[in-house]
Amino acid sequence: RCKTYQRGSYTLFTRKMGLEIRERATLMQHLHEAFDAERLFLMYQPQIELSTKRFIGLEALIRWRTDDGQLIPPTEFIPLAEYSGLIVSLGAWVLRTACFLMVRLQKAGISPERIAVNVSVVQFRQDDFVDNVRKALNDSGLPPNHLELEITESVTMASASMFEARLHELKNMGIHIAIDDFGTGFSSLSYLDKLPVDRLKIDRAFVQQIDTPEGPRIAELITQLGKKLGLTVIAEGIETQTHWDVLSAMGCHEGQGFLMGRPMPEDLLLEWIKEFGMASK
Ligand code: C2E
Ligand code: MG
Ligand code: MG
Ligand code: MG
């Protein structure tokens, strides 16, 4: 593993500033140690095509198990990793691990269409980002069209032209691009028409809203927008049959959520595939 950490940007480190400085420094040090000691691991959550119930993809989600067995969610440590620059080597490791998992599945005769990997804006703007992606694909032997990168709207906003060129380069390699947490950022919509995006991910908050007086209207808006632009739409956080039914009825293409499958380590994923994934083919 690469042990050179580059410093991230202060501007990205906002939410977790609430932590005491000393607390933060300790957590950061523990995170670096955990990475070196390989105590970070990936879980995989299935993605399902709503109309066919077909198992079509996976999202790789990172976890950190501390020495004393505590599980720290990525929302707690990804901002720290971005701040310290660890995200660059961490992100490269996630990418490689996900590609290798996918190749293992393919060798076992299980071939979902894609594995989706979350990419931080700090990682994306590194000069060697595309090279890292290419290397992960080459080393694992995963064909590029089985990889999807999930970026957030912050990627599409920052330094538009350089990022645009980079996205086109990835797209030309055959890699898929999804906009994660769509609708939660503040970017203009014009970029959607310009950028080589394949998929919009409806944020979990809008799926949860289905159960409130607001109802499914935002989810519906995103689905219609995606369709107008010729994009696939996937909803995250489907927890109930009602969520599934409402999203299916509005024509949302795909979904992931606890109703179908939680993020799972590799062994449990294989069990899940035997029970649900294969049966749904
Ligand atoms: P995300 O990419 O939007 O991932 C979806 C989150 O929703 C995951 O949380 C997943 O476990 C959770 N989720 C999925 N279905 C359900 C459901 O039905 N109910 C509920 N309550 N939650 C559901 P998780 O794994 O805690 O990850 C949180 C965020 O951390 C991710 O949001 C992503 O932004 C970030 N993240 C995770 N892994 C990585 C990584 O490898 N690299 C980077 N840069 N960020 C990551
Ligand atoms: Mg994601
Ligand atoms: Mg998301
Ligand atoms: Mg989300």
TrEMBL record:
Residues 24-277 form the EAL domain. It comes from the Bacteria. This is EAL domain-containing protein. It comes from Undibacterium jejuense. The lineage of its organism: Bacteria, Pseudomonadati, Pseudomonadota, Betaproteobacteria, Burkholderiales.
